[in-house]
Amino acid sequence: MKAKNDKAWFQSIDENFQDRYPLNEIIYRCPHSGELLEVRHDLDSLKSKSPAQWQELFAQRQMQAAGPFASGVWSKKEWVCPVVEDRHIVSMGEGRTPLFNAAALAQETGIRRLWVKLCGNSHTGSFKDLGMTVLVSMVRQMIADGKKIKAVACASTGDTSAALAAYCAAAGIPALVLLPKGKISTAQLIQPIANGALTLALDTDFDGCMKVVQELTESKEIYLANSMNSLRVEGQKTVAMEVVQQLDWRVPDWIIVPGGNLGNVSAIGKGLLEMHEVGLIDRLPRLVCAQAQEANPLFESYQRSFEDFAAKPANTTLATAIQIGDPVSVRKAIKVLKRLDGIVEQASEEELANACARADGHGLFTCPQTGVALAAFLKLVEKKEIKSQDEVVVISTAHGLKFTDFKVRYHEQDLPGIASRFANPPVEIPADVSIVRQKIDEHFG
Fold first, then answer.
1. d(CA 364, CA 257)
2. CATH number, domain containing residue 103
3. Which residues pair with 100 in a beta bridge?
4. Which tens digit of pLDDT belongs to each residue from 238-269?
5. Given this model, what pLDDT does residue 388 score?
6. pLDDT higher than 80, residue 3
7. Per-residue pLDDT tens digits for 50-86
8. For the whole prediction, is pTM greater than 0.85?
9. What angle do CA 165, 126, 399 make, to 5 degrees?
């Protein structure tokens, strides 16, 4: 079925195939090229409002405490998914997350300004809520319109499954989750279980789970919720919109994003390019995708100037949510990185662990994926790619409370092969006030 003159539609990322498909069609890849689809918007329609009018409208919606526009995603509805009726929107107040002013770390590293966008301060504790509200709302709309959808399914290393299970539970839609057995934290495993999803732990890695879910969703009765479904990308791109809105529409010099399956870096790049095209922003930042050294196929491709890309098995990394060797959104990610003069950097296990602890010492509480992005930031400052006058935004993708075992083991100096430079374990002493005073004097001087 071809889309008519809608305000948004699916279209292949392959410029040789430009058929349009409506957003309520169950389709994930171009039937001609096999490439992923992406959501295209009628930018001329968006240009019918001036940048100042959009900024004023978004500011007005920011004041709402209830209803769909109280969401940081749905306050940008016309830019995200205009075809969903308001009554079918499934929202949990996603978005509107803090932009943490990491002034002490900026001063310590010698740059002008550093912000950390706390996307993990959300209902299920990660940025995945931003995309899932769009996808589940669209499923609810399709079911209302008569489509037969038995369940919504995803492969996950943790965060996607949590978001899917929560939003499906709120919508009254069955959810199916495929997880790699023994490869995610307990905090991540319990979330889909608590929200009633059918949770299957497969004896494989994420890439193996991804292969299975793609086969399952060949049946249109099981709807795919992974980021190869480009509806997810539309919600996640609002991170970029929210960052510049919080900076009073000032564009930072750099945005650094952890990358695994590469949907998030693709989404943020897409949001920036669309805002620039419509005139909401007057320039583009440089974009950095940060990968764990143990799961770094995009970094290796970048080292070859993106001349080719080779998937490979991901090794074990503390940054479990990006432990992915065959990312489905690689073509989209390379496309936006080229448009935004992008860089791909990597971080070792020790670098990411110490970057987390260093940032935590300045008031953050970072997940290991954010540690990868922070380590990339520190390396780019050291290489003088990031200059002293630059303004940088690091995207924090999940809440540190999902990774307490990682935190505890770091401070107990129990992470194999890692020198915990910023370890701060509790000091066990007798309940004797004189000894307590002695320790206080030793510590504070």
1. 17
2. 3.40.50.1100
3. 116
4. 999 999 999 999 999 999 999 999 999 999 99
5. 97
6. no
7. 999 999 999 999 898 888 999 999 999 999 999 999 9
8. yes
9. 125
Amino acid at 219: S
Total residue count of the chain as it appears in this document: 445
CB-facing half-sphere around the CA of 392: CA atoms within 13 A: 28
Greatest alpha-carbon span in the chain: 79
Report the C-alpha gap between 353 and 43 in whole angstroms. Answer: 42
pLDDT (tens digit per residue) in 284-311: 999 999 999 999 999 999 999 999 999 9
Is residue 393 situated within a structural domain? yes
3-class secondary-structure state, position 331: helix
- Position 262, amino acid: L
Question: Is residue 341 domain-resident?
Answer: yes
- Give the pLDDT band (50/70/90) at residue 2: very low
- Residue 343 bridge partners (DSSP): 288
What 413-421 contacts at long range (C-beta under 8 Å, 24+ apart), as own/partner pairs, is 415/318, 415/349, 415/353, 417/349, 417/350, 418/349, 418/350, 418/353, 418/354, 419/350, 419/354, 420/353, 420/354, 420/357, 421/354, 421/357, 421/358
For residue 399, what are the β-bridge partners? 366
Contacts of 218-221 with CB under 8 Å at 24 or more apart are 220/26, 220/147, 220/148, 220/149, 221/148, 221/149, 221/150, 221/151
Residue 386 belongs to some domain of the structure = yes
Q: Which amino acid is at 246?
A: Q
Can you list the pairs that 209-213 forms with residues at least 24 positions away whose Cβ atoms lie under 8 Å?
209/155, 209/156, 209/178, 209/179, 209/180, 210/155, 210/326, 210/328, 212/155, 212/178, 213/153, 213/154, 213/155, 213/178
Q: Percent of the chain beyond pLDDT 70?
A: 99
**In terms of residue numbers, what domain contains 363?**
99-125+233-411
If one counts the domains in the chain, the total is 1
- How far apart (Å, rounded) are the C-alpha atoms in residues 411 and 333? 35
Check whether 186 has a pLDDT greater than 90.
Answer: no
CA nearest neighbour of 137 among 89, 72, 95, 82? 89
